Amino acid sequence: xxxxxxxxxxxxIIAIFIYEYSSSEPLRFNFDLKHIDxxxxxxxxxxxxxxxxxxxxxxxxxxxxxxxxxxTRHKTSYKDDKIESMILELIAIPKEKGIDKTQFDIIWGEWxxxxxxxxxxxxxxxxxxDFMIGSMPVxxxxxxxxxxxxxxxxxxxxVFTYDWHPRNHCSFNESVHDPSIHRPIIDYYNKTRDxxxxxxxxxxxxxxxxxxxxxxxxxxxxSEGSQLYHELNQDHIKDKFNVTKGMDPDIDSYSAFAxxxxxxxxxxxxxxxxxxxxxxxxxxxxxxxLYEFCVGSTALDALTLGYRTAFIEDAVHELNTTRQKExxxxxxxxxxxIITADDVNDMVTAYxxxxxxxxxxxxxxxxxxxxxxxxxx
Length: 377
Ligand SMILES: *[C@@H]1O[C@H](CO)[C@@H](O)[C@H](O)[C@H]1NC(C)=O
Ligand SMILES: *[C@@H]1O[C@H](CO)[C@@H](O)[C@H](O)[C@H]1NC(C)=O
Ligand SMILES: *[C@@H]1O[C@H](CO)[C@@H](O)[C@H](O)[C@H]1NC(C)=O
Ligand SMILES: *[C@@H]1O[C@H](CO)[C@@H](O)[C@H](O)[C@H]1NC(C)=O
Ligand SMILES: *[C@@H]1O[C@H](CO)[C@@H](O)[C@H](O)[C@H]1NC(C)=O
Ligand SMILES: *[C@@H]1O[C@H](CO)[C@@H](O)[C@H](O)[C@H]1NC(C)=O
Ligand SMILES: *[C@@H]1O[C@H](CO)[C@@H](O)[C@H](O)[C@H]1NC(C)=O
Prior knowledge:
The chain is of the alpha/beta class. It has 2 domains: 35-116, Orthogonal Bundle (Recoverin, domain 1), CATH 1.10.238.10; 120-172 and 215-353, Rossmann fold (3-Layer(aba) Sandwich), CATH 3.40.50.850. The protein is 37% helix and 14% strand. The protein contains 14 helices and 11 strands. One 2-acetamido-2-deoxy-beta-D-glucopyranose (NAG) binds next to strand 8. The site of one 2-acetamido-2-deoxy-beta-D-glucopyranose has 6 residues, from helix 9.
């Protein structure tokens, strides 16, 4: 009996010992990367240079990631082998030669500085009366407003986007039934002009490549329904600005960056990208309605333009859960960080640094772009 207890006890000690040593964290640099000075950076270079040849090769560089992609609150490194390999591929450290300290400093200046000191903006998408309490209210949509109000104190820059439609806009059910509006339809998706209603789709002759959903008339320019919902607290924001979208009567606009299909077309873009560029914004945080349309599309365009993008899921609301799930998949596929309001303070202050955010920036710096970036004055 006694020996059995003793051997169980010994086995437990051995198990704890093995656990401690096999699950220990990856090698981490001891200094707080956020506040590293030049001397410490020399020390970091020597720390990474394991074989002491004054060069850092790819496997040595990889050891930086456990310090770079780190959460101070949870005291853990983010591990994501796939993203780490994609970043290394983009940095393209020469196989034989590695990089010296000068080249390391260049990478530091181009990429790491932003990972450690991002400039963030909160984008509040379409929190307008019509979507909250007006002509097309989103069920439980107003529940996100206190969350957004609370979030604003983390940001110097806050953007309010507005759906801002002319009265005869192509997205309105009322427009297809108004005899004074002449906008030929080439595809009724099995309906007729008489039976078309909210939720149906059409294709118009003016933009045959675009499938248009029909909605109740909403957010008509200057109307009460188009104003920001009154419980949104806009006081005490240092730097706020508006972006209006959907002004072209013949084409809908979901993303706050451009009309449908327009991110690479200067004539379809809004002012948002240049407004963010002029402020040096590197990171955007998304809130508002609707998850599966305007907020999601804004996030996807932001990622295309190389903004590190965080989607604050508990500050966004959807209309249709099926489409919301599809959009969520598209967002994660395209390296949006999906987060909750609790994460925001740590991320904005860079005490929580996610690999996805690092990857999006690496792709912007070293990736090959199919389209030139939109030019701003
Ligand atoms: C709205 O909130 C109520 C109460 O929390 C909940 O029962 C209901 O399912 C919610 N509806 C939607 C569509 O989220
Ligand atoms: C669509 O518009 C027509 C004409 O204004 C109207 O009769 C119909 O009720 C509308 N559909 C909905 C769901 O409101
Ligand atoms: C239209 O109706 C036809 C025949 O009922 C059907 O085969 C087709 O899938 C429908 N198309 C759409 C877009 O609903
Ligand atoms: C834009 O911002 C200003 C100042 O914050 C505000 O008074 C105005 O109503 C906003 N709306 C639009 C659509 O410009
Ligand atoms: C939600 O979207 C799906 C997929 O587009 C569609 O099949 C379904 O009818 C929609 N549900 C509602 C309630 O509109
Ligand atoms: C998600 O992406 C797929 C493939 O690009 C596209 O067909 C689909 O419409 C997208 N869904 C949403 C909700 O954006
Ligand atoms: C998002 O990712 C999917 C899957 O990788 C891709 O097919 C799609 O084109 C992407 N969408 C955007 C808007 O970048």
